[in-house]
Amino acid sequence: MAVRLPRPHPHDVRIAVGGLLGGLLLWGLGLTPRHAGDGLVLWPARQAVLVPLVVTAGCELLRRSRPRAALLTGTVALAADTVTLGSVVTVVMFTDLVYAAVLYGTPASARRIPWLTGLLTVAGAVVPYALWRVPEALLIGVGVGVIALAPAATGWVVRDHRDAAEAARLRAEQTALLAEADRRQAVTAERARVARELHDVVAGHLSAIAIHSTAALSLDDPDTSRGALSVIRENSVAGLAEMRRLIGMLREGGGEPEPAPAPSLDAVADLVEGARANGLDVALDAEPGEVPAPVGLAAYRIVQEALTNALKHAAEGRVTVTLHRQGHILDVRVTSPYDKHDEHEGHDGHDGPHAPGSGAGLIGMRERAALLGGTFRAGPDGPRWTVRARLPLTGGAHE
After folding, report:
1. Domain coverage including residue 349
2. 270 and 165, same structural domain?
3. Residue-wise pLDDT tens digits, 318-354
4. Can you give the chain as a three-state secondary structure string?
5. pTM of the entire predicted model
6. pLDDT band at 228 (very low <50, low <70, confident <90, very high)
7. What domain count does the chain have?
């Protein structure tokens, strides 16, 4: 099976053609470094110079695709050139083959060739001087260094800079990929945070509006309708204020006023009062003390969502909100009566009008607890439905 040589690089073709034409020009002008009477000239015919010249030019076609084979073949051609009248172009092209073998060859070749050429340079100076004992013998080593060691060292330096540039490029690409991954993660986290805020801010008020509007439509009693409309108006105004606060948080600059501060545990009492106004029988037992702002916000939102679920799904009876500090843990617990388990938002046991749930509330509460490194559980506990979160007061992530 015939071996198919790779297509030479265009630059290699230009180098090979230029070297061959330059060698032919010098050969045509009769310019050679040696004469027929020199002792090393074993092949004095003028045409003999063309053989190593053509072979070396052919090796230049492989300097990039097969650098090791090109260098070995070029070394044989250079040895043949030394026993002819010689051609300067053949020697110059050989130096380029050494350079290319280091630059384009394997890492092992790139390490070995400079060492080998260095040893040949030393041997080329020491051995002739030891044999002839004349200073001029050292020039042989100088010649070997110029022909072999210098291009090998140049190739090593260029390769080292090229590898460093490639490594820097790869690091830059990796950094860009990591930055993009961080950006996407940040966007995803921010979307989840905004989704939790939107749900927590709107769900409670809209649930109250839905329940009381249903009551107003289903009962033909002016006093009941007036009371329901009053509750609807209060929840509409409160929900609008919360939405404005959230939009203020999302705005960037633009001369807008500073958004209101995020709610904390101090506002839980207002939540309870609002739930009572919406028709829930709520009792509050709170002794939290001072807590970090992220913990306070998470606890507030968990209580808010739990009361919303109780408003939509709880049976008749008292809802209890408990906030207690246990060492470095804030224990948040909301219990409510229920008759049967609802798979989505909580439970359902009363016969009055209620609003449907989507399941996003439980997900949001669990996410808030997890972001702080806490735990969350929601489910039946005897005759009552219990929502409980244990939030560490130190460590964890901030919203």
Report:
1. 263-399
2. no
3. 999 999 988 889 999 999 987 654 443 445 444 444 5
4. CCCCCCCCCHHHHHHHHHHHHHHHHHHHHCCCCCCCCCCCCCCCCHHHHHHHHHHHHHHHCCCCCCHHHHHHHHHHHHHHHCCCCCCHHHHHHHHHHHHHHHHHCCHHHHHHHHHHHHHHHHHHHHHHHHHHCCHHHHHHHHHHHHHHHHHHHHHHHHHHHHHHHHHHHHHHHHHHHHHHHHHHHHHHHHHHHHHHHHHHHHHHHHHHHHHHHHHHHHCCCHHHHHHHHHHHHHHHHHHHHHHHHHHHHHCCCCCCCCCCCCCCHHHHHHHHHHHHHCCCEEEEEEECCCCCHHHHHHHHHHHHHHHHHHHHHCCCCEEEEEEEEECCEEEEEEEEECCEECCCCCEECCCCCCCCCCCHHHHHHHHHHHHCCCEEEEEEECCEEEEEEEEECCCCCCC
5. 0.56
6. low
7. 2
